[in-house]
Amino acid sequence: MLGRALCERLEKNGAEVTALDRGALDVTDARAVGEAVAATRPAVVVNCAAMTAVDAAESDETSAYRINADGPRHLARACADTGAQLVHISTDYVFEGGTADYATPYPEDAEPRPRTAYGRTKLAGERAALTEHPSGTAVLRTGWLYGHHGHSFVGTMVRRAAEGHTVDVVDDQFGQPTWTGDLAQRILDVARTGATGIFHATSTGQVSWHGLASEVYRLTGADPSLVRAIDSTQLTRPAPRPHWSVLSHERWTTAGLPPLRDWQTALTQALTDEDGWKAYA
């Protein structure tokens, strides 16, 4: 989802892009990673590879670790060897996720306390990348991603809305829906500025999953009252979902960049520009 959006944005900006899917490069293979980076000699490497199936990671944390922790370690070493900048995509799941009444956005320097295998392995990946290539790594934590490519909550809600379905959506989990188009542009900004360290790359503002679904229904011309609110106790999943995935964005000032725009404006553009919401249906 993010990789394809990023390639499109880079190519529109005239960048020379080498896009390697997992069939072309296994990031868990240290030798293959080193050879690929040495062969192409890129100025910037962006790691969009991850095991993001949070429930599957609970039962196979070994595989999740190889992809989410060993992968960025190998990439960081290869970038350090060649002098390339590494932009590594991470997640809000590195934090504990608060409770339903939690109300303070997590700053970039908040102490990570992941509660899931996915969060633990992604945190290990952050630390590995920053340890192996501290002077050339930018970690961008994001969350609640949606885009024209791949699967996302927004895409699912667009399809349900188009079919006139009633949906039950949790109203006690809060986060920041983030459009891959905006995140792709921010990755390009980071590459241009050479920024390093940890940044929070989510849209500003906050909303519950129920609020997001209601807004998708409204923007696509469906009846928002078809979105019914439930609480998370009505859902049972192997990996606990965070109640609070709201991140703060103060550190962008050190890179001379503003935070990403608010989630409502981004969602409106994502569902109206280009192919609009029909691209998600």
UniProtKB/TrEMBL annotation:
Any one annotated GO CC term: cytosol
EC number: 1.1.1.133
Gene3D superfamilies linked to this entry: NAD(P)-binding Rossmann-like Domain, UDP-galactose 4-epimerase, domain 1
Keywords tagged on the record: NADP, Oxidoreductase, Plasmid
GO MF annotation, one: dTDP-4-dehydrorhamnose reductase activity
One annotated GO biological process: dTDP-rhamnose biosynthetic process
Pathway, per record: Carbohydrate biosynthesis; dTDP-L-rhamnose biosynthesis
Enzyme superclass (EC): oxidoreductase
SUPFAM superfamilies named among the record's database cross-references: NAD(P)-binding Rossmann-fold domains (SSF51735)
Domain RmlD-like substrate binding, chain residue ranges per copy: 1-273
Record-linked CDD domains: dTDP_HR_like_SDR_e
One of the Pfam families matching this protein, by short name: RmlD_sub_bind
Entries under InterPro entries matching the protein: dTDP_dehydrorham_reduct (IPR005913), NAD(P)-bd_dom_sf (IPR036291), RmlD-like-bd (IPR029903)
Entries under PANTHER family matching the protein: DTDP-4-DEHYDRORHAMNOSE REDUCTASE, METHIONINE ADENOSYLTRANSFERASE 2 SUBUNIT BETA
NCBIfam families xref list: rmlD
Family that this chain belongs to: Belongs to the dTDP-4-dehydrorhamnose reductase family.
Primary role: Catalyzes the reduction of dTDP-6-deoxy-L-lyxo-4-hexulose to yield dTDP-L-rhamnose.
Name recorded for this polypeptide: dTDP-4-dehydrorhamnose reductase
Organism expressing this protein natively: Streptomyces xanthii
